[in-house]
Amino acid sequence: MKEFAVQANHVSKEIGSNTILHDVNFTVNRYTKLAIMGHNGSGKSTLLKLIAQIYLPTSGEINTFGQTISYVPEHFSENIRFTLQEYLLYIGMIRGKKREVVQEKVQAYCKLFQIESYLHTYLKKCSKGTKQKAGLIQAMISDSDILLIDEPLTGLDDESKKIFLELMQERDMTFIFTTHEQEAVDNLAEEIMTLEEGRIIKYEGVTPKTQMKHLKVRVSELTLKEELKMYGTIVSDRGHIVELKVPARESDACLFYLLKNDCSIIELKESR
């Protein structure tokens, strides 16, 4: 019998006069890797904060069955007054680990992600990319039952993405993450939840290898390229001419999005 990691029953969340989530119901089994997808403003980050118990539901309830939780935000607070090393040591020692053990891990991961030269730099003065790597290292040194990360690949260089994806593939834990990037879904997700305007519109399992489509398109506006990452991985970017690989299951939605935004389809073919 499968054990539950997270269960949401009729959860709604209002912030001010805005209803961010509407009557959300779902169950995540233990040791599942779940990707939460959706456009900006769909409620992804709010749902993650509800699971992390940073927010309380306006109505309904979320049960995490007494498990320990680690949460990594997309952006660090500017009020953090620690150096990079001090912050990671503090996070790593929260649950009673010895300083020497945590310090060894921190130094090893900082070397792996090539940010060891920033160990004594105040976190708020670090670049966005360095902060993002610090967040991932925070995730790596956590021994929580449930790991929550908001947009784990944002701001990372290709080598750091590869390292993180490989490390997380080896982790045997419940991992729930929000993402705009199909690369994270293809490499990590076992299940996908799609949100739209605060409602779950799709919840599905993922097959290990997905048939892909190769699209070559002319985008009407350069700003659309960021949204395209929701549907697939951009493999070539030449201004208004973009090539991307899209899982077959997302190809119809991607084509509809492109046509709705006055983009031109130059080429569409099967891909491996």
Keywords:
272 residues; 8 helices; single chain; alpha/beta; 13 strands; four-stranded antiparallel β-sheet; six-stranded mixed β-sheet; Rossmann fold; Alpha-Beta Plaits
What is this entry, summarized?
The chain is an alpha/beta fold and 272 residues long. The chain has helices spanning 44-51, 84-93, 99-112, 128-140, 158-169, 182-188, 224-228, 248-260, and strands at 4-15, 18-29, 33-37, 59-63, 69-72, 146-150, 174-178, 191-196, 199-205, 212-218, 233-238, 241-247, 264-271. The protein is 30% helix and 33% strand.
Describe the protein's architecture and organization:
This protein has 272 residues and is of the alpha/beta class. Among the domains are: 4-68 and 144-205, 3-Layer(aba) Sandwich (Rossmann fold); 212-271, Alpha-Beta Plaits (2-Layer Sandwich), CATH 3.30.70. The protein has 8 helices and 13 strands. The mean pLDDT is 90.
